[in-house]
Write a structure and sequence with these properties.
about 450 residues; alpha+beta; Elongation Factor Tu (Ef-tu), domain 3; 4-stranded antiparallel sheet; 21 strands; about 35% strand; elongated; disordered C terminus
Length: about 450
């Protein structure tokens, strides 16, 4: 560095230090104490009160496809793109989804078919036997009729007479047995045919077909895996019928459920598309509430259109239920209604205008503050700086969204500066020295605006 630079740089540093010290001294007022206020302007705008909650995107209607028979998965079917059925496959009603090893069930079918044939043969034999018994009865009946005409006499002994009667009666009994055998044979055929139908149905169950048209959301088996159907049918595939319409299952706190009703407008976002807001409406409120750590929540079904195909099943959704709204009203931050000045900072003679010190407008509840019926929430107080003191302005407090609140009252107008809190500049203890770089502490009864 040359001689000129060595002289200029120290001079600049000295001037800067002196300037900072002068600014610090002037702000301290020569060692005195001054107070200022943090203020914000009353603004005019629109306000929407909403209830925030979290939910999960779900298909509107899903079908869980299971298996009714046990066996090993040997193959998958083909989807509409002629590819093996897998996650995301589009299928039609009746599409083959999978095939289970059917060797045992095919053997059962063959056995049942043999039993049907055997039962039919037995029936035919019984029917033939019945024909013989009819002929036998006809013959014994004729013999009995002749014996009855002759009666016991010299031409017909008593034993022959009794023998003819007995033969006729035995023939009648045998005919009844023959008829019963035919009936039994027919029942045997019916039973065998029923067994065949059952075996055939079990064989058909080895081919898993889609009951609906839709999209495969979940495939829960692999080739070679054995499924066991016992008391509960094992789940193989989960199919969504139509992904163009989706639902959002939102868990809503019991404190807010009274403001939810079918047809209510809902907006929501998903992390997959952070810059896009999706619209929907409440479909139904389920009555089967759940309790977790003494917190009761209800599941609300929100219906939304997914024609774009952007929404995927099971995305996490951050939903807002539109409870009420105001257009073109005066708004102030909630912190302005929470501010409470010390008595010595209030303009003399105006203390009587204070409504419930600190105001009553910051009304919040789980997720968002709500207003019902359009009436004011209550009375509150705003404060306006007047030199080193403040004067109150009583206001009616209306709808709030948890950050800003609707206010009405005499003397209120757009652009009016209202106090949020006090900012002291003499936060250094006497005799302790100080520095212009020491952070200044915000003092006031309420947090900064928007908190």
């Amino acid at each position: 560095m040359n001689r000129f630079g060595r002289r200029v740089v120290p001079a600049i540093l000295v001037v800067a230090v002196v300037g900072l010290a002068l600014v610090w001294f002037l702000r301290r007022g020569g060692g005195g104490s001054q107070s200022g206020f943090r203020t914000v302007a009353v603004k005019r705008g629109d306000l929407v009160a909403s209830i925030s909650a979290t939910g999960v995107v779900e298909p509107e209607e899903v079908v869980d496809v299971g298996a009714q028979v046990a066996g090993k998965i040997v193959a998958f079917g083909k989807d509409l793109a002629d590819r093996p059925v897998d996650y995301g496959s589009r299928i039609e009603e009746g599409t083959v989804l999978a095939k289970i090893d059917d060797s045992l069930y095919a053997a059962d079918v063959a056995q049942s078919q043999a039993q049907v044939a055997q039962a039919q043969a037995s029936l035919q034999r019984s029917e033939a036997d019945l024909g013989q018994l009819h002929a036998k009865l006809y013959q014994t009946e004729r013999d009995w009729n002749r014996a009855r005409k002759l009666g016991p006499s010299d031409a017909l002994s008593q034993s022959d007479y009794d023998g003819a009667l007995s033969a006729y009666q035995v023939a009648q009994a045998n005919l009844a047995v023959g008829k019963a055998a035919v009936t039994q044979g027919r029942a045997g055929v019916s039973q065998a045919e029923a067994n065949l139908r059952r075996a055939q149905q079990n064989l058909d169950y080895c081919t898993i077909r889609s009951p609906v048209r839709g999209v495969i959301i979940d495939r829960r088996v692999n080739i070679g895996q054995t499924v066991v159907a016992s008391l509960n049918a094992p789940s193989l595939f989960l199919i969504a019928k139509d992904l163009r319409r989706m639902q959002v299952w939102v868990a809503v706190n019991e404190a807010d459920i009274g403001s939810i009703h079918p047809g209510q407008a809902v907006s929501f976002t998903v992390d997959a598309f952070p810059g896009e807001v999706f619209q929907g409406e409440v479909g139904k409120v389920r009555l089967n509430a759940t309790m977790t750590q003494n917190v009761v929540t209800y599941t609300v079904e929100v219906i939304t259109d997914n024609s774009s195909g952007k929404l995927l099943p099971y995305l996490t959704a951050n939903a807002k239920f539109m409870v009420d709204e105001r257009r073109d009203v005066l708004l102030v931050p909630n912190a302005a209604l929470r501010y409470t000045p010390s008595p010595d900072r209030v303009v003399e003679g105006s203390r009587g205008n204070v409504v419930a010190a600190g105001g009553s407008g910051a009304v919040t509840s789980t997720g968002a503050a709500r207003e019902k019926g359009g009436s004011a929430q209550g009375q509150g107080t705003l404060w306006v700086a007047q030199k080193e003191k403040v004067r109150p302005i009583p206001v009616e407090v209306g709808l709030t969204d948890g950050s800003d609140t609707e206010v009405r009252g005499d003397g209120l107008k757009e652009g009016l500066q209202v106090v949020l809190g006090e900012q002291r500049k003499d936060d250094v203890a006497p005799g302790a020295g100080g520095s212009p770089f020491t952070p200044k502490i915000f003092r006031g009864s309420g947090p900064p605006a928007g908190r």
